[in-house]
Design brief:
Length: 329
């Protein structure tokens, strides 16, 4: 049974993207109400995810209802580095190219760095990013600077270390007597994302669940290991304030390997574990997204409950490795 809290308008999907450098750690999740909104934020990055977001929004229920929104969250599968995501650059490249004594300051970890940059050889913003990267790299190893054309902005990634100890600040005016380019480059008032430690799949599910996003199904396009899938299922059986998580949220898995995964899920069913959905997807078409879309477009009134029967119905064959799929259709 999927129990809905008062005011929940739909069963929204929470989609995890692993190790994103577009979603800042300062935000537990991002909310989009259409595939177009998703594209406006990510541009040409995460195009594979965008295709699935389109599929999610395009599904219609029998009463012509569709999903209202999707929740996108960053899963720190690896320890993440801190970064500064700049604002849209309004200054044309011709004006930036004319600056030969540009300067700005920035603090990465415990080091405050000031640079002086000659942009006269830069003919486009990609070259501007490379020039800044070269100068910063002289003082902080492995620092990278990316230019995102879709947002016409720069992102400075602290390459010195990863995890919670990786920190960065917004840019300041830099060396006196030179041309302050912190505002010109959009990095004076950009968005800061501090580093974060790596988290397991179960830890991610717990974090996003407690972020109160209003989501009701957690899934990902990432290929999960058996141990990761087990951890998520076991987390669902947790209880807090006499309420088990598996009555509040679902984890939706994609599954290609019939024999291996059959044994995994059989063991969980034997323990009466519930709350997870398994989509057999031999051609990797991401049927998990369709499952989440069906949940998100279900017709019901606010503050009511909706029954989702995820158990095996009477008369249907339980998990088996006998015969083929078509033998049981």
């Amino acid at each position: 049974v999927q129990k809905l809290s008062s005011g929940t308008e739909k069963l929204h999907m929470i989609l995890a993207i692993a190790d994103s450098t577009i979603i800042p750690n300062s935000k537990p999740y991002l909310t989009f109400t259409s595939a177009a909104e998703f594209h406006n934020y990510f541009g040409n990055f995460e195009t594979d995810v965008e295709e699935q977001v389109k599929k999610y929004f395009n599904y219609l229920s029998k009463n012509n209802y569709s999903a209202d929104k999707v929740i996108i969250a960053n899963w720190n599968k690896q320890a993440s580095k801190s970064y500064l995501k700049g604002l849209t650059i309004e200054t044309p490249i011709e004006a930036i190219k004319a600056i030969t004594d540009g300067t700005f300051g920035i603090k990465m970890n415990e080091s405050y760095v000031e640079v002086t940059i000659d942009f006269s050889n830069c003919n486009n913003m990609e070259e501007v990013a490379t020039t800044i990267e070269n100068e910063l790299g002289k003082q902080v190893n492995n620092t990278s600077v990316r230019y995102y054309e879709f947002s016409n902005s720069l992102t400075i990634i602290n390459g010195n270390q990863a995890g919670k100890t990786s920190t960065i600040t917004k840019a300041t005016s830099g060396l006196p007597g030179n041309t302050d380019v912190s505002e010109i480059l959009g990095i004076k008032d950009g968005e800061v994302s501090q580093g974060a430690n790596a988290e397991t799949w179960g830890e991610f599910c717990n974090r996003i669940f407690k972020a109160n996003s209003g989501g009701a199904s957690i899934t990902t396009l990432e290929e999960l290991t058996e141990d990761e899938m087990k951890e998520g299922i076991e987390w669902l059986q947790s209880e807090e304030n006499e309420q088990t998580f598996n009555t509040l949220i679902k984890i939706v898995y994609n599954w290609q390997d019939t024999l291996t995964k059959l044994e995994l899920f059989k063991s969980k069913i034997d323990k009466n574990y519930t709350g997870y959905v398994i989509c057999y997807d031999p051609y990797k078409e991401f049927l998990n997204i369709l499952s989440c879309s069906i949940m998100a477009s279900t017709d019901y009134e606010n503050s009511t409950s909706k029954n989702f029967n995820y158990q095996f119905a009477t008369g249907y064959t339980p998990i088996t490795n006998e015969g083929t799929i078509t033998d049981y259709q």
